Amino acid sequence: MRQMPFIVNGRPVSVDAADHTLLVDLLRGPLGLTGTHIGCDTSQCGACTVLLDGAAVKSCTVLAAQAEGRAITTIEGLAAEGAPLHPVQEAFVVCHGLQCGFCTPGMVMTTVDLLSREPQPSAECIAHALEGNLCRCTGYVNIVESVQTAARAMAEGGAR
Length: 160
Ligand code: FES
Ligand code: FES
Description:
By secondary structure, the protein is an alpha+beta fold.
């Protein structure tokens, strides 16, 4: 075990971790950021998706040591407590892009990454971007609509 520094949701932190500690376990354990979910632990479901230096990664397949010194954003970091939701979060609410909500943090983080690279994605592009995020509930139609709605909102209101 050793102290590893990270920037988590904009805040510098230092956490005691082993070289083999998974990033998702670091987030959910010592950092208490349980909005990042574990659905499979084998890189299939996408529920554990976070941003690493702005790019979506499945945190169940990233070692904490690989993220050392880097910026990690979790679902908790998209909007400050009491502040308006991030446009992607808002769109998932408005468009009913979730049912049980288990997959939603991963869906939202993948969408934030997608819209940072592709501000006006086609439905095909959205489907491709979300192919690593599985949802057992919604059938994906409302999820795609949520992404399109978020894209429009961010184009009108300025990207975040
Ligand atoms: S828990 Fe990481 S992809 Fe499923
Ligand atoms: S909303 Fe239940 S798994 Fe997606």
